[in-house]
Write a structure and sequence with these properties.
By secondary structure, the chain is of the alpha/beta class. It is built from eight helices and eight strands; from the N terminus they run E-E-E-H-H-E-H-E-H-E-H-H-E-H-E-H. The protein has a single domain, classed as Alpha/Beta hydrolase fold, catalytic domain (Rossmann fold), CATH 3.40.50.1820. The protein has helices at residues 59-63, 66-73, 96-111, 128-139, 168-177, 191-197, 217-229, 245-260; strands at 2-10, 15-23, 45-50, 75-80, 121-126, 146-150, 205-211, 235-239. Helix 4 links the parallel strand 5 (121-126) and strand 6 (146-150).
């Protein structure tokens, strides 16, 4: 296994951006003979994994077993720094959506031996990053074949939610959307509208999970019901846990086993 932290000049964000990468180099002991059809010679399946609010590109590496899981399932894991962006395009020209869904894909595929196949490319995240995974996975359905969305902080125009609440997250959202209410947010930020847009396309497979003690679980239950009502086949899981790393460490292992294990793809 190799772990890299680096940066490149982003044309979408007009500055250098940081990211951390886990590359599984071998799943074997040095004492075992190497098979002729060595697995590591094939292009790697890839998981783009997004952090939450107030986090950075090292969060998943330091707080979960993601490095061990990357080796176990022989999957490259790309963890970008999204700041507090919600991973969408901003009115000020910071195009975080374009960066995640286009530029990051292009640059990492140049740098590493990654598969270009949609079915081998997954986007996932937690909280703000769960929203980012949903937004970008649905906005770029020809790029991402799978979405892993955990403990999602959701933005939809139907929520009737004011963005002017005196809390740093809502103040940031007001600056991002350029509006004071979810009712007038841009369509490309509305998860429900994005879901409707992909209904007639080759939809990404969707795995959603939330802890039963999480204070935003109702938002995830509402999303689940919206998917059921619109016949979007998906997996929805509730487990014991809150909005914390204990739950995310547990659920990332469960979801990767489902996606990459013997019964997965």
């Amino acid at each position: 296994m190799a772990v890299f932290t680096g940066s490149f000049q982003s044309r979408e964000l007009f500055r250098k951006v940081s990211f951390t990468v886990i590359i599984p180099t071998s799943t074997q002991s040095i004492y075992e003979s190497k098979p002729k059809d060595a697995q590591e010679n094939k292009p790697l399946k890839t998981l783009y994994l997004l952090h939450g609010w107030d986090g950075n590109h090292e969060d998943w590496l330091h707080n979960t077993r993601i490095a061990e899981l990357a080796v176990k399932y022989h999957v490259a894991v790309i963890m970008p720094d999204g700041q507090n962006s919600f991973y969408v395009n901003h009115p000020n020209g910071d195009n975080y959506g374009n960066y995640i869904g286009e530029e990051l894909i292009q640059e990492t595929r140049k740098l590493f031996h990654l598969s270009h196949k949609k079915e081998d490319t997954t986007i996932g995240g937690l909280s703000m990053g769960g929203y980012g995974a949903l937004r970008n996975g649905l906005y770029y359905p020809d790029t991402f074949g799978n979405i892993l969305a955990f403990s999602n902080k959701l933005l939809t125009r139907s929520s009737k939610e004011s963005l002017m609440i005196e809390h740093p997250i809502y103040q940031r959202l007001h600056a991002i959307t350029g509006t004071s209410s979810t009712e007038t947010m841009p369509e490309e930020m509305d998860i429900e509208q994005l879901l409707l847009n992909v209904m007639q396309k080759a939809k990404p497979e969707l795995f959603i999970a939330c802890g039963m003690e999480d204070n935003i679980i109702q938002e995830n239950r509402t999303l689940h019901q919206f998917l059921v009502d619109n016949n979007y086949v998906h997996t929805y899981v509730e487990e014991l846990g809150g909005h914390d790393w204990s739950f995310w460490n547990f659920i990332i292992e469960q979801s990767m086993e489902r996606l990459y294990g013997k019964n997965g793809k």
